[in-house]
Amino acid sequence: MSAKAGTLWDAVRAKAHPFPPGAFCFVQEGLRYTVHRLFDEDPGDKRLEGERHVSGRDLCIGLREFAGRQYGLLARTVLDHWNIRRTEDFGRIVFLLVEAGLLRKTPEDSITDFENVFDFDEAFGRPLERC
């Protein structure tokens, strides 16, 4: 991890509980995926990312698709491991990243935009029983 990345993570860490670093990386990568999906941009072109706005609802839908592409049938298990169990958790992570200055929001954006966007059981199946 670079010194800058370490400092940025330190800014988030105090408020990050119960989400581990992997959850934040997933949301940031999923946001990149969603921007490219919504705006049909070249996935290798990183210059335009900051110039596009993604709503909380669109991000949740993009994260659902990204999780499926990345983890397939294990998507629910991976998200559960990161304590992400409903779309509101995506919102909590996003707004922690906004507070840390890693993401931007518009005045119209609200954490309530992430409420009940989809049901995790319907999207990913029920969580596996733990032994």
Question: How would you describe what is shown here?
Answer:
Helices cover 56% and strands 0% of the residues. The protein contains six helices and no strands. With 131 residues, it is mainly α. It has helices at 3-16, 21-39, 56-71, 75-81, 87-99, 120-124. The model has no long low-confidence stretch (mean pLDDT 84). The chain has one domain.
Main sheet: strands, sense, barrel:
none
Rg over C-alpha atoms, rounded to the nearest angstrom: 15 Å
Low-confidence stretches: none
Mean pLDDT: 84
Characterize the overall form.
globular
Strand composition percent: under 5%
Any key phrases for this structure?
mainly alpha, globular, 6 helices, single chain, 131 residues
Care to give the gist of this entry?
Helices cover 56% and strands 0% of the residues.
Topology:
Elements: H1 3-16, H2 21-39, H3 56-71, H4 75-81, H5 87-99, H6 120-124
Helix pairs in contact: 2-3, 2-5, 3-4
